[in-house]
Design brief:
Elements lengths: L2 H28 L5 H8 L4 H21 L8 H30 L9 H8 L3 H4 L10 H24 L4 H26 L5 H8 L5 H19 L7 H8 L1 H15 L14 H22 L4 H6 L4 H28 L9 H34 L12
Helix pairs in contact: 1-2, 1-3, 1-15, 1-16, 3-7, 3-10, 3-13, 4-15, 4-16, 8-9, 8-10, 8-13, 10-13, 12-13, 15-16
Length: 395
């Protein structure tokens, strides 16, 4: 299965994750998330963040996993960091300028934190560590966690290489999976502990890359399964793994069931009330399992070839391209829609607001991609091009 065809499946998954995050914010702002099964499912769309984290970990850890399996895969820190910056910063900075401008225009609560320190914190994507953010940029706490992961991944991979290295690829793969399990358990423990104390640092830890280590570990574990499959490395003779690699419909159905379970009080309150430690742990596990199912579904054998030869191929690629922009712009769009239409917080029409915010966010994301993000990303890839016998998928 080629990297190019696989990207189409992952592009579709990226688009789904972005829309789920949009769905959760619309459900919260309109008040729809507080009532009914549909409201519960909608507000739990926040699990799209888990999908994003797992997907990033899958894509970026692939070269290191292939090295662990004995392949000679070139990797350069400079190229890695430049490409990450080119993918994240242009669209982010453009959206940040718009957020600041709209906050100044609206005034009141929207401009309550409009000061130089807050702007500077956002310029270095540090809002996830400080807790200070704009009303229309609250979702970008996850970018702080993403950037933290980008920086930690090569360091952790280098530190763990001697531990997982083995001349038998299957044993090396199993060691990486065990390491992923250990990291996931540590992340779940931190997530549970973060819900125990009151105060800012508990919340900051809960949203950090360390608190969500389990979601990143899911992505690396899936990378191990996919890379082992490509290399013909047999990890187990049990039929369960074959089912995971060949049944996307079953995996999507399982993800839907887990999403439904997460919509119940087991994963905590639907509003602004804090979750208990047990509820925080349940949400972390359920969201991570949904992300695992969807990522496994997006990488199953044969699915990418089907997508790449279908009329939906170009649409899937386009949706993946603009998904980051949809993530960046949708809360600002939501804020402006509420202001212009004079909608009441927690008492606005859900379906109409969802449709309007989706359409405007997609339009802005498309413009951002065409005018800014794609040209910058292409230039970064050209300037860092290097001969690679088997290039890994890029985000």
């Amino acid at each position: 299965m080629s990297a190019t065809s696989r990207l189409l499946g992952l592009d579709a998954l990226r688009a789904v994750a972005a829309w789920l995050v949009l769905l959760s914010h619309v459900a919260f702002w309109t008040g729809a998330g507080a009532e009914g099964v549909v409201g519960g499912l909608a507000v739990r769309g926040e699990l799209g963040v888990a999908v994003f984290f797992a997907l990033s970990a899958f894509l970026l850890s692939t070269p290191f996993v292939r090295r662990a399996l004995g392949e000679d895969v070139p990797w350069a820190a400079g190229r890695y960091l430049l490409r990450r910056a080119a993918r994240i910063l242009p669209g982010y900075l453009l959206a940040l300028v718009a957020v600041v401008a709209v906050a100044a225009w609206l005034g009141g609560a929207a401009a309550a934190v409009l000061d130089l320190p807050t702007v500077l914190v956002h310029l270095v994507i540090g809002q996830g560590w400080t807790g200070r953010t704009f009303q229309a940029f609250t979702q970008t706490w996850s970018l702080t966690s993403e950037v933290t992961f980008y920086l930690l991944l090569p360091v952790v991979a280098a530190a763990c290489a001697p531990v997982v290295r083995h001349e038998v690829p299957a044993i090396a793969a199993r060691r990486v999976l065990l390491l992923c399990a250990a990291i996931a358990i540590g992340g779940l423990a931190l997530q549970t502990l973060a819900a125990l104390p009151d105060g800012q640092w508990g919340a900051v830890l809960a949203t950090s890359a360390f608190g969500h280590a389990a979601w990143f570990a899911v992505g690396v574990a899936v990378a191990v399964l996919v890379c082992a499959d490509r290399a013909g490395v047999v990890l187990t003779e049990r039929p369960g793994l074959t089912v995971l690699r060949t049944s996307p419909g079953t995996l999507v159905a399982l993800a839907a069931v887990l999403w439904l379970v997460a919509s119940t009080p087991i994963a905590g309150p639907r509003g602004i009330d804090a979750s208990s430690a047990t509820e925080a742990l349940a949400a972390e596990v359920l969201y991570g399992l949904v992300a695992a199912c969807l990522l496994l579904a997006g990488t199953t054998r044969g699915l990418s070839e089907t997508i790449s030869t279908s009329p939906l191929a170009s649409t899937a690629r386009w949706l993946g391209d603009i998904s980051y922009g949809v993530f960046l712009w949708h809360v600002l769009v939501l804020q402006v829609v509420f202001a212009v239409l004079d909608l009441r917080l927690f008492a606005a029409p859900f379906a109409a607001t969802l449709l309007l915010v989706t359409i405007i966010s997609v339009g802005l994301a498309h413009l951002s991609w065409l005018v800014l993000e794609r040209p910058v990303l292409r230039r970064a890839h050209r300037s860092t091009a290097a001969p690679e016998r088997q290039p890994a998928p890029r985000a």
